[in-house]
Protein backbone atom coordinates (compact mmCIF):
# COMPACT_ATOMS: atom_id res chain seq x y z
CA UNK A 1 0.00 0.00 0.00
CA UNK A 2 1.23 3.46 -0.77
CA UNK A 3 0.11 6.56 0.94
CA UNK A 4 0.12 10.29 0.44
CA UNK A 5 -1.69 13.28 1.92
CA UNK A 6 -4.51 14.60 -0.27
CA UNK A 7 -6.58 17.62 0.84
CA UNK A 8 -5.78 16.92 4.47
CA UNK A 9 -6.84 13.29 4.22
CA UNK A 10 -4.65 10.23 4.58
CA UNK A 11 -4.07 8.21 1.46
CA UNK A 12 -2.84 4.66 1.49
CA UNK A 13 -2.05 2.05 -1.11
CA UNK A 14 -2.51 -1.53 -0.06
CA UNK A 15 -0.36 -4.24 -1.49
CA UNK A 16 -1.97 -7.61 -1.12
CA UNK A 17 -4.55 -7.59 1.67
CA UNK A 18 -4.28 -11.00 3.34
CA UNK A 19 -5.54 -13.90 1.21
CA UNK A 20 -5.00 -11.99 -1.97
CA UNK A 21 -3.30 -13.66 -4.84
CA UNK A 22 -4.27 -14.20 -8.44
CA UNK A 23 -2.48 -17.15 -9.94
CA UNK A 24 -3.06 -18.58 -13.38
CA UNK A 25 -1.87 -22.14 -13.83
CA UNK A 26 -2.52 -24.18 -16.97
CA UNK A 27 -6.07 -23.17 -17.87
CA UNK A 28 -7.30 -22.68 -14.32
CA UNK A 29 -7.36 -19.55 -12.18
CA UNK A 30 -7.79 -18.81 -8.50
CA UNK A 31 -8.32 -15.21 -7.49
CA UNK A 32 -7.72 -13.23 -4.40
CA UNK A 33 -5.85 -9.95 -4.22
CA UNK A 34 -2.29 -8.79 -4.64
CA UNK A 35 -1.21 -5.23 -5.32
CA UNK A 36 1.63 -3.03 -6.39
CA UNK A 37 3.22 0.34 -7.44
CA UNK A 38 5.77 2.55 -9.57
CA UNK A 39 9.24 4.28 -9.76
CA UNK A 40 11.27 7.40 -10.90
CA UNK A 41 15.06 7.69 -11.09
CA UNK A 42 17.78 9.53 -9.21
CA UNK A 43 21.22 8.01 -9.66
CA UNK A 44 22.09 8.11 -5.96
CA UNK A 45 20.06 9.01 -2.93
CA UNK A 46 22.14 11.62 -1.18
CA UNK A 47 21.92 11.90 2.59
CA UNK A 48 23.86 14.51 4.50
CA UNK A 49 24.12 12.25 7.55
CA UNK A 50 25.56 9.14 5.89
CA UNK A 51 27.42 7.73 2.90
CA UNK A 52 26.29 5.62 -0.03
CA UNK A 53 28.45 2.50 0.08
CA UNK A 54 27.65 1.73 -3.57
CA UNK A 55 30.00 4.53 -4.59
CA UNK A 56 33.02 2.76 -3.14
CA UNK A 57 35.37 0.20 -4.64
CA UNK A 58 33.87 -3.18 -3.66
CA UNK A 59 37.34 -4.77 -3.95
CA UNK A 60 38.98 -2.41 -1.43
CA UNK A 61 39.04 -3.92 2.07
CA UNK A 62 37.70 -1.92 5.00
CA UNK A 63 40.38 -0.85 7.48
CA UNK A 64 38.64 -2.28 10.54
CA UNK A 65 35.39 -4.06 11.41
CA UNK A 66 34.80 -4.24 15.17
CA UNK A 67 32.16 -4.94 17.81
CA UNK A 68 32.70 -3.67 21.36
CA UNK A 69 30.43 -4.95 24.11
CA UNK A 70 29.93 -3.08 27.39
CA UNK A 71 28.63 -4.33 30.76
CA UNK A 72 24.93 -5.12 31.08
CA UNK A 73 22.67 -2.36 32.43
CA UNK A 74 19.12 -2.35 33.73
CA UNK A 75 17.39 0.17 31.45
CA UNK A 76 17.50 1.87 28.02
CA UNK A 77 18.38 5.20 29.68
CA UNK A 78 21.49 3.68 31.28
CA UNK A 79 22.38 2.04 27.98
CA UNK A 80 22.14 5.46 26.29
CA UNK A 81 24.48 6.92 28.94
CA UNK A 82 27.00 4.13 28.38
CA UNK A 83 26.92 4.55 24.63
CA UNK A 84 27.21 8.34 24.75
CA UNK A 85 30.28 8.03 26.98
CA UNK A 86 31.80 5.43 24.68
CA UNK A 87 31.17 7.62 21.62
CA UNK A 88 32.82 10.58 23.33
CA UNK A 89 35.82 8.40 24.15
CA UNK A 90 36.00 7.21 20.55
CA UNK A 91 35.87 10.79 19.33
CA UNK A 92 38.85 11.77 21.47
CA UNK A 93 40.81 8.68 20.45
CA UNK A 94 40.02 8.00 16.77
CA UNK A 95 41.08 4.69 15.20
CA UNK A 96 44.11 4.82 12.86
CA UNK A 97 42.22 3.78 9.73
CA UNK A 98 40.92 5.67 6.71
CA UNK A 99 37.87 3.39 6.61
CA UNK A 100 36.04 1.15 9.01
CA UNK A 101 32.87 0.23 10.85
CA UNK A 102 32.57 -0.08 14.64
CA UNK A 103 29.56 -1.32 16.58
CA UNK A 104 29.15 -0.45 20.26
CA UNK A 105 26.56 -2.57 22.10
CA UNK A 106 25.13 -2.56 25.62
CA UNK A 107 23.03 -5.51 26.86
CA UNK A 108 19.90 -4.52 28.82
CA UNK A 109 18.48 -6.81 31.49
CA UNK A 110 14.84 -6.11 30.72
CA UNK A 111 13.16 -7.26 27.51
CA UNK A 112 12.05 -4.31 25.40
CA UNK A 113 10.03 -4.94 22.29
CA UNK A 114 11.80 -3.51 19.27
CA UNK A 115 8.52 -2.28 17.76
CA UNK A 116 7.78 -0.27 20.92
CA UNK A 117 11.25 1.31 20.85
CA UNK A 118 10.89 2.21 17.17
CA UNK A 119 7.50 3.79 17.77
CA UNK A 120 9.10 5.99 20.44
CA UNK A 121 11.31 7.45 17.67
CA UNK A 122 8.32 8.28 15.43
CA UNK A 123 9.06 12.01 15.19
CA UNK A 124 12.47 11.52 13.58
CA UNK A 125 12.97 12.20 9.86
CA UNK A 126 15.86 9.74 9.81
CA UNK A 127 15.69 6.44 7.93
CA UNK A 128 14.10 3.58 9.89
CA UNK A 129 14.03 -0.17 9.60
CA UNK A 130 12.44 -3.10 11.39
CA UNK A 131 12.75 -6.83 10.83
CA UNK A 132 11.25 -9.67 12.81
CA UNK A 133 11.87 -13.28 11.86
CA UNK A 134 9.30 -16.06 11.95
CA UNK A 135 8.73 -18.28 14.95
CA UNK A 136 11.39 -21.00 14.59
CA UNK A 137 10.11 -24.42 13.58
CA UNK A 138 11.53 -27.71 14.74
CA UNK A 139 12.76 -28.73 11.29
CA UNK A 140 14.10 -25.37 10.10
CA UNK A 141 17.56 -26.86 9.51
CA UNK A 142 16.98 -30.07 7.59
CA UNK A 143 20.07 -30.42 5.44
CA UNK A 144 21.85 -32.66 7.93
CA UNK A 145 18.92 -35.06 7.81
CA UNK A 146 18.36 -35.09 11.58
CA UNK A 147 16.53 -31.80 12.11
CA UNK A 148 19.59 -30.12 13.65
CA UNK A 149 22.03 -27.62 12.23
CA UNK A 150 25.72 -28.47 12.58
CA UNK A 151 26.37 -24.82 13.45
CA UNK A 152 24.83 -23.93 16.84
CA UNK A 153 22.53 -20.91 17.00
CA UNK A 154 24.70 -18.04 18.20
CA UNK A 155 22.07 -15.38 18.82
CA UNK A 156 18.51 -15.45 20.12
CA UNK A 157 17.38 -12.38 18.21
CA UNK A 158 13.62 -11.91 18.03
CA UNK A 159 13.47 -8.62 16.13
CA UNK A 160 15.57 -5.56 15.30
CA UNK A 161 14.60 -1.89 15.00
CA UNK A 162 16.97 0.79 13.74
CA UNK A 163 17.10 4.54 13.06
CA UNK A 164 19.65 6.51 11.09
CA UNK A 165 22.10 4.91 8.69
CA UNK A 166 25.78 4.44 9.44
CA UNK A 167 26.09 3.51 5.76
CA UNK A 168 23.37 2.95 3.17
CA UNK A 169 23.32 1.34 -0.25
CA UNK A 170 21.06 2.61 -3.01
CA UNK A 171 21.12 2.75 -6.79
CA UNK A 172 18.61 3.06 -9.63
CA UNK A 173 20.32 0.30 -11.62
CA UNK A 174 19.50 -3.39 -10.96
CA UNK A 175 21.11 -4.96 -7.88
CA UNK A 176 24.40 -6.43 -9.11
CA UNK A 177 27.25 -8.60 -7.87
CA UNK A 178 29.28 -5.41 -7.41
CA UNK A 179 26.51 -3.93 -5.22
CA UNK A 180 26.41 -7.13 -3.17
CA UNK A 181 30.19 -6.97 -2.69
CA UNK A 182 29.89 -3.30 -1.67
CA UNK A 183 27.53 -4.33 1.12
CA UNK A 184 29.59 -7.36 2.17
CA UNK A 185 32.64 -5.08 2.36
CA UNK A 186 31.23 -3.62 5.60
CA UNK A 187 30.29 -7.01 7.12
CA UNK A 188 32.27 -9.73 8.87
CA UNK A 189 31.73 -13.19 10.39
CA UNK A 190 33.42 -11.83 13.53
CA UNK A 191 30.72 -9.17 13.96
CA UNK A 192 27.47 -11.07 13.25
CA UNK A 193 25.13 -8.31 14.43
CA UNK A 194 26.46 -5.73 11.98
CA UNK A 195 23.81 -6.22 9.33
CA UNK A 196 22.44 -4.38 6.31
CA UNK A 197 18.62 -4.34 6.29
CA UNK A 198 16.69 -3.56 3.14
CA UNK A 199 14.79 -4.60 0.06
CA UNK A 200 15.14 -5.07 -3.69
CA UNK A 201 12.43 -4.12 -6.17
CA UNK A 202 10.37 -6.75 -7.98
CA UNK A 203 11.54 -5.79 -11.48
CA UNK A 204 14.53 -3.48 -11.76
CA UNK A 205 13.96 -3.15 -15.51
CA UNK A 206 10.69 -1.29 -15.01
CA UNK A 207 10.56 2.50 -14.64
CA UNK A 208 10.62 3.72 -11.06
CA UNK A 209 7.47 5.64 -10.17
CA UNK A 210 7.46 8.74 -7.98
CA UNK A 211 6.05 6.91 -4.97
CA UNK A 212 9.01 4.48 -4.95
CA UNK A 213 11.77 6.90 -6.01
CA UNK A 214 13.37 7.13 -2.53
CA UNK A 215 13.98 3.37 -2.55
CA UNK A 216 15.66 3.24 -5.94
CA UNK A 217 16.14 -0.20 -7.46
CA UNK A 218 17.28 -1.37 -4.03
CA UNK A 219 17.81 0.19 -0.63
CA UNK A 220 19.80 -1.22 2.31
CA UNK A 221 20.97 0.43 5.53
CA UNK A 222 23.22 -0.43 8.46
CA UNK A 223 21.43 1.37 11.34
CA UNK A 224 23.25 4.05 13.32
CA UNK A 225 21.24 3.23 16.44
CA UNK A 226 19.34 -0.02 16.93
CA UNK A 227 17.41 -1.92 19.56
CA UNK A 228 17.82 -5.69 19.42
CA UNK A 229 14.97 -7.57 21.05
CA UNK A 230 16.20 -10.90 22.42
CA UNK A 231 14.22 -13.81 23.85
CA UNK A 232 14.62 -12.72 27.46
CA UNK A 233 16.42 -9.38 27.31
CA UNK A 234 17.44 -6.70 24.84
CA UNK A 235 20.44 -4.74 23.60
CA UNK A 236 20.99 -1.14 22.49
CA UNK A 237 23.71 -0.56 19.93
CA UNK A 238 25.26 2.19 17.84
CA UNK A 239 27.31 1.81 14.68
CA UNK A 240 29.70 4.29 13.10
CA UNK A 241 31.08 3.78 9.58
CA UNK A 242 33.48 5.91 7.58
CA UNK A 243 35.49 5.82 4.37
CA UNK A 244 37.60 8.79 3.26
CA UNK A 245 37.54 7.51 -0.33
CA UNK A 246 33.78 8.24 -0.26
CA UNK A 247 34.41 11.73 1.20
CA UNK A 248 32.95 10.55 4.50
CA UNK A 249 35.63 10.98 7.17
CA UNK A 250 35.82 9.63 10.69
CA UNK A 251 35.04 13.10 12.08
CA UNK A 252 31.95 13.47 9.90
CA UNK A 253 30.72 9.98 10.83
CA UNK A 254 31.17 10.40 14.58
CA UNK A 255 29.51 13.84 14.51
CA UNK A 256 26.56 12.38 12.58
CA UNK A 257 26.21 9.58 15.13
CA UNK A 258 26.22 12.06 18.02
CA UNK A 259 23.56 14.12 16.24
CA UNK A 260 21.36 11.05 15.90
CA UNK A 261 21.91 10.02 19.52
CA UNK A 262 20.71 13.47 20.63
CA UNK A 263 17.37 12.78 18.92
CA UNK A 264 16.84 9.20 20.15
CA UNK A 265 14.37 8.75 22.98
CA UNK A 266 15.21 6.43 25.86
CA UNK A 267 11.58 6.48 27.04
CA UNK A 268 9.73 3.48 25.62
CA UNK A 269 5.97 3.12 26.08
CA UNK A 270 4.18 -0.17 25.48
CA UNK A 271 2.15 0.05 22.29
CA UNK A 272 -1.51 -0.91 22.40
CA UNK A 273 -1.76 -3.39 19.55
CA UNK A 274 -5.17 -2.33 18.33
CA UNK A 275 -6.33 -1.67 14.81
CA UNK A 276 -6.27 2.11 14.17
CA UNK A 277 -9.76 3.59 14.28
CA UNK A 278 -10.39 5.52 11.09
CA UNK A 279 -12.88 5.72 8.26
CA UNK A 280 -12.27 4.99 4.59
CA UNK A 281 -13.12 7.89 2.29
CA UNK A 282 -12.28 6.11 -0.96
CA UNK A 283 -10.82 2.86 -2.21
CA UNK A 284 -9.63 2.78 -5.83
CA UNK A 285 -8.21 -0.23 -7.62
CA UNK A 286 -5.74 -0.29 -10.50
CA UNK A 287 -6.65 -1.83 -12.87
CA UNK A 288 -10.44 -1.59 -13.00
CA UNK A 289 -12.53 -4.76 -12.92
CA UNK A 290 -13.04 -4.58 -16.70
CA UNK A 291 -9.32 -4.24 -17.45
CA UNK A 292 -8.51 -6.95 -14.91
CA UNK A 293 -10.85 -9.42 -16.61
CA UNK A 294 -9.26 -8.62 -19.99
CA UNK A 295 -5.77 -9.24 -18.59
CA UNK A 296 -6.80 -12.56 -17.03
CA UNK A 297 -8.47 -13.73 -20.25
CA UNK A 298 -5.44 -12.74 -22.30
CA UNK A 299 -3.19 -14.76 -20.00
CA UNK A 300 -5.49 -17.77 -20.21
CA UNK A 301 -5.51 -17.59 -24.00
CA UNK A 302 -1.71 -17.57 -24.12
CA UNK A 303 -1.54 -20.55 -21.79
CA UNK A 304 -4.31 -22.53 -23.51
CA UNK A 305 -3.29 -22.03 -27.13
CA UNK A 306 0.25 -23.30 -26.68
CA UNK A 307 1.64 -20.44 -28.80
CA UNK A 308 3.58 -19.26 -25.76
CA UNK A 309 5.89 -21.03 -23.32
CA UNK A 310 3.86 -19.45 -20.51
CA UNK A 311 2.49 -21.98 -18.02
CA UNK A 312 1.68 -19.75 -15.07
CA UNK A 313 1.53 -16.01 -14.40
CA UNK A 314 0.72 -14.14 -11.19
CA UNK A 315 -0.98 -10.80 -11.75
CA UNK A 316 -1.31 -8.06 -9.17
CA UNK A 317 -3.51 -5.06 -8.59
CA UNK A 318 -2.99 -1.88 -6.65
CA UNK A 319 -5.53 -0.65 -4.09
CA UNK A 320 -5.25 3.01 -3.08
CA UNK A 321 -7.17 3.87 0.08
CA UNK A 322 -7.85 7.34 1.48
CA UNK A 323 -8.74 7.51 5.19
CA UNK A 324 -10.01 10.31 7.39
CA UNK A 325 -7.06 10.27 9.81
CA UNK A 326 -3.37 9.51 9.78
CA UNK A 327 -2.26 5.91 10.14
CA UNK A 328 1.07 5.46 11.89
CA UNK A 329 2.92 2.72 9.95
CA UNK A 330 4.73 1.48 13.06
CA UNK A 331 1.53 1.26 15.11
CA UNK A 332 -0.08 -0.54 12.18
CA UNK A 333 2.83 -2.97 11.97
CA UNK A 334 2.44 -3.67 15.69
CA UNK A 335 -1.18 -4.68 15.01
CA UNK A 336 0.02 -7.12 12.36
CA UNK A 337 2.30 -8.75 14.94
CA UNK A 338 -0.74 -9.96 16.87
CA UNK A 339 -1.64 -12.32 14.04
CA UNK A 340 1.88 -12.60 12.68
CA UNK A 341 3.13 -15.87 14.16
CA UNK A 342 4.93 -17.88 11.52
CA UNK A 343 5.35 -14.72 9.44
CA UNK A 344 8.00 -12.07 8.93
CA UNK A 345 7.25 -8.47 9.88
CA UNK A 346 9.24 -5.69 8.26
CA UNK A 347 9.47 -1.94 7.84
CA UNK A 348 11.84 -0.03 5.58
CA UNK A 349 11.76 3.75 5.38
CA UNK A 350 14.44 5.87 3.66
CA UNK A 351 15.01 9.36 5.13
CA UNK A 352 11.83 11.49 5.19
CA UNK A 353 10.13 9.04 2.83
CA UNK A 354 7.22 6.61 2.72
CA UNK A 355 7.36 3.46 4.85
CA UNK A 356 7.16 0.01 3.26
CA UNK A 357 5.67 -2.36 5.83
CA UNK A 358 4.47 -5.94 5.67
CA UNK A 359 3.58 -9.21 7.32
CA UNK A 360 4.65 -11.99 4.95
CA UNK A 361 4.69 -15.76 5.53
CA UNK A 362 6.90 -16.46 2.54
CA UNK A 363 10.62 -17.14 2.97
CA UNK A 364 12.93 -16.58 0.00
CA UNK A 365 16.02 -18.07 1.67
CA UNK A 366 18.01 -18.22 4.89
CA UNK A 367 21.76 -18.77 4.74
CA UNK A 368 23.99 -19.59 7.70
CA UNK A 369 27.61 -20.18 6.68
CA UNK A 370 27.29 -22.67 3.80
CA UNK A 371 23.91 -24.06 4.85
CA UNK A 372 20.93 -22.63 2.99
CA UNK A 373 17.17 -23.11 3.43
CA UNK A 374 14.31 -22.08 1.20
CA UNK A 375 10.69 -23.06 0.83
CA UNK A 376 7.92 -23.39 -1.70
CA UNK A 377 4.60 -21.81 -0.73
CA UNK A 378 1.61 -21.91 -3.07
CA UNK A 379 -2.11 -22.60 -3.13
CA UNK A 380 -4.40 -20.73 -0.75
CA UNK A 381 -7.56 -21.49 1.21
CA UNK A 382 -9.25 -19.76 4.12
CA UNK A 383 -9.43 -21.32 7.56
CA UNK A 384 -12.49 -23.35 8.58
CA UNK A 385 -14.74 -22.07 11.35
CA UNK A 386 -14.32 -25.31 13.28
CA UNK A 387 -11.67 -27.99 13.54
CA UNK A 388 -13.73 -30.30 11.35
CA UNK A 389 -14.35 -27.66 8.67
CA UNK A 390 -10.71 -26.61 8.77
CA UNK A 391 -9.63 -30.18 8.10
CA UNK A 392 -12.08 -30.41 5.18
CA UNK A 393 -10.60 -27.23 3.69
CA UNK A 394 -7.09 -28.64 4.18
CA UNK A 395 -7.99 -31.91 2.41
CA UNK A 396 -9.60 -29.96 -0.44
CA UNK A 397 -6.41 -27.92 -0.87
CA UNK A 398 -4.18 -31.00 -0.80
CA UNK A 399 -6.34 -32.86 -3.34
CA UNK A 400 -6.88 -29.98 -5.77
CA UNK A 401 -5.21 -30.73 -9.17
CA UNK A 402 -4.92 -27.02 -9.97
CA UNK A 403 -3.24 -26.17 -6.66
CA UNK A 404 -1.00 -29.24 -6.89
CA UNK A 405 0.23 -28.10 -10.30
CA UNK A 406 0.82 -24.56 -9.07
CA UNK A 407 2.69 -25.81 -6.00
CA UNK A 408 4.78 -28.32 -7.98
CA UNK A 409 5.92 -25.61 -10.40
CA UNK A 410 7.13 -23.49 -7.47
CA UNK A 411 8.83 -26.33 -5.59
CA UNK A 412 10.63 -27.80 -8.60
CA UNK A 413 11.79 -24.39 -9.80
CA UNK A 414 13.38 -23.66 -6.42
CA UNK A 415 14.89 -27.15 -6.23
CA UNK A 416 16.60 -26.80 -9.61
CA UNK A 417 17.97 -23.37 -8.74
CA UNK A 418 19.40 -24.65 -5.46
CA UNK A 419 20.96 -27.67 -7.18
CA UNK A 420 22.87 -25.32 -9.50
CA UNK A 421 24.95 -23.96 -6.58
CA UNK A 422 24.63 -26.65 -3.90
CA UNK A 423 26.36 -29.99 -3.45
CA UNK A 424 23.07 -31.59 -2.51
CA UNK A 425 19.44 -30.59 -1.94
CA UNK A 426 16.99 -32.17 0.50
CA UNK A 427 13.22 -31.57 0.20
CA UNK A 428 11.41 -32.39 3.44
CA UNK A 429 8.48 -32.21 3.77
CA UNK A 430 7.76 -32.52 0.06
CA UNK A 431 4.14 -31.43 0.44
CA UNK A 432 2.44 -30.28 3.62
CA UNK A 433 0.05 -27.61 4.91
CA UNK A 434 1.15 -24.41 6.66
CA UNK A 435 -1.65 -22.85 8.65
CA UNK A 436 -1.78 -19.10 9.33
CA UNK A 437 -4.43 -17.29 11.40
CA UNK A 438 -6.61 -16.47 8.37
CA UNK A 439 -5.40 -18.73 5.55
CA UNK A 440 -3.54 -21.97 4.86
CA UNK A 441 -1.08 -22.85 2.09
CA UNK A 442 0.68 -25.88 0.62
CA UNK A 443 4.39 -25.74 1.37
CA UNK A 444 7.64 -27.66 1.17
CA UNK A 445 11.02 -27.01 2.79
CA UNK A 446 14.22 -27.23 0.79
CA UNK A 447 17.78 -27.19 2.11
CA UNK A 448 21.24 -27.49 0.64
CA UNK A 449 24.90 -26.77 1.21
CA UNK A 450 26.51 -24.06 -0.89
CA UNK A 451 29.85 -24.76 -2.50
CA UNK A 452 30.99 -21.22 -1.61
CA UNK A 453 29.60 -18.33 0.44
CA UNK A 454 30.03 -16.19 -2.69
CA UNK A 455 27.20 -18.27 -4.19
CA UNK A 456 24.83 -16.28 -1.98
CA UNK A 457 24.46 -13.60 -4.66
CA UNK A 458 23.66 -16.23 -7.30
CA UNK A 459 21.03 -17.75 -5.03
CA UNK A 460 19.38 -14.37 -4.46
CA UNK A 461 19.48 -13.51 -8.14
CA UNK A 462 18.07 -16.87 -9.23
CA UNK A 463 15.40 -17.43 -6.55
CA UNK A 464 13.87 -14.00 -7.16
CA UNK A 465 11.31 -13.69 -8.57
CA UNK A 466 9.82 -17.02 -7.60
CA UNK A 467 6.97 -18.61 -9.59
CA UNK A 468 4.74 -17.91 -6.56
CA UNK A 469 4.77 -14.14 -7.22
CA UNK A 470 5.77 -13.99 -10.89
CA UNK A 471 4.98 -17.17 -12.82
CA UNK A 472 6.72 -19.76 -14.97
CA UNK A 473 8.85 -19.70 -17.03
CA UNK A 474 10.19 -16.67 -15.18
CA UNK A 475 11.18 -14.46 -18.11
CA UNK A 476 7.98 -15.08 -20.07
CA UNK A 477 5.91 -14.34 -16.95
CA UNK A 478 7.94 -11.22 -16.12
CA UNK A 479 7.48 -9.84 -19.63
CA UNK A 480 3.74 -10.52 -19.52
CA UNK A 481 3.50 -8.68 -16.19
CA UNK A 482 5.55 -5.74 -17.52
CA UNK A 483 3.32 -5.47 -20.61
CA UNK A 484 0.03 -5.95 -18.74
CA UNK A 485 0.22 -4.23 -15.35
CA UNK A 486 -0.21 -0.45 -15.51
CA UNK A 487 1.70 0.34 -12.32
CA UNK A 488 5.15 -0.30 -10.88
CA UNK A 489 5.24 -3.01 -8.22
CA UNK A 490 8.23 -1.34 -6.58
CA UNK A 491 9.43 -3.38 -3.61
CA UNK A 492 6.18 -5.33 -3.50
CA UNK A 493 6.86 -9.07 -4.06
CA UNK A 494 10.60 -8.33 -4.05
CA UNK A 495 13.22 -9.66 -1.60
CA UNK A 496 13.13 -7.99 1.82
CA UNK A 497 15.51 -8.89 4.64
CA UNK A 498 19.14 -8.55 5.65
CA UNK A 499 22.74 -9.41 4.85
CA UNK A 500 25.16 -10.34 7.64
CA UNK A 501 28.75 -11.53 7.72
CA UNK A 502 28.08 -15.27 8.02
CA UNK A 503 24.30 -15.25 7.82
CA UNK A 504 21.57 -13.67 5.70
CA UNK A 505 17.80 -14.01 5.47
CA UNK A 506 15.22 -12.77 2.99
CA UNK A 507 11.45 -12.99 2.77
CA UNK A 508 9.14 -12.19 -0.14
CA UNK A 509 7.59 -8.73 0.31
CA UNK A 510 3.90 -9.64 -0.10
CA UNK A 511 0.96 -8.78 2.19
CA UNK A 512 2.46 -5.36 2.42
CA UNK A 513 1.73 -1.67 2.17
CA UNK A 514 3.43 1.61 1.31
CA UNK A 515 2.42 4.25 3.84
CA UNK A 516 3.18 7.96 3.70
CA UNK A 517 3.65 9.75 6.98
CA UNK A 518 1.52 12.84 7.36
UniProtKB/TrEMBL annotation:
Record-linked InterPro entries: ADC_synthase, Chorismate_C, IsoChor_synthase, MenF-like
Catalytic reaction equation(s): chorismate = isochorismate
Lineage: superkingdom: Eukaryota
One GO term describing the cellular component: chloroplast
Gene3D superfamilies hit by this protein: Anthranilate synthase (3.60.120.10)
Molecular function per GO: isochorismate synthase activity
Keywords, in A-Z order: Chloroplast, Isomerase, Magnesium, Plant defense, Plastid, Transit peptide
Protein's UniProt keywords contain Magnesium: yes
Pathway in which the depicted protein is active: Siderophore biosynthesis; salicylate biosynthesis
Compartments where found: Plastid, Chloroplast
E.C. designation(s): 5.4.4.2
Cofactors: Mg(2+)
Segments forming domain Chorismate-utilising enzyme C-terminal: 291-517
Keyword hit for NADP: no
GO biological process, one term: phylloquinone biosynthetic process
Function: Isochorismate synthase involved in the synthesis of salicylic acid (SA) required for both local and systemic acquired resistance (LAR and SAR) while SA synthesized through the phenylalanine ammonium lyase (PAL) pathway seems to potentiate plant cell death. Also involved in phylloquinone (vitamin K1) synthesis. Has no isochorismate pyruvate lyase (IPL) activity.
Family: Belongs to the isochorismate synthase family.
Protein name: isochorismate synthase
